[in-house]
Amino acid sequence: MVIAYHLILTAYGFWLPNDPRGSWSTFVRSFALYRAGGPATKTETPRSVANVKHDRAARELAKTALKYPPVTFNGEQAREVMRGIGDYVEKNRRPVHAAAVMPDHVHLLAGCCEHDVETVADQLKERATTFLNRAGINPMKPFANRRGRIPTPWARGQWVVYLNDVDDIDRVTGYIESNPVKAGHKPQRYSWIVPFTE
Q: What is the mean pLDDT of the chain?
């Protein structure tokens, strides 16, 4: 039985469908991206492949074929992302047990709720984007079209790891909390985080 989710929301350009380490994609939508990086690299593993050895130059070459530059949130943008997520969590009473915003992705340890996790992920990204737009600091703002519509700073979809025991919860909590520190940032604490209880 699933008791929580490790939810990873990725910024635009973070993990491509033809990433040499593997992806959950079955095809590449963009012909330019296909030409630069090849076909989708579908993987079935539920474990992270982030640390798998791969051809970094090939990965970076594929990113040059993207329509926009990959998104990297600066400190101010990262704060607005988490303010938006916190606003959503509090207003919708969604339990979140651990959270970290990185420059190009967000980790959340989310409790179960009545909605499917994919819908919740989309709503979280929408609220984070709303806060970026209100602050006038959406990293995609320079690419707004003539009508002022700003492309999303998020990748399509999300990564979800389904957790079904307390050992998984402890392991993922430690992983999420240590993520910013390992990357040279300060630990992250949020008032809307609640401890996991069985």
A: 88
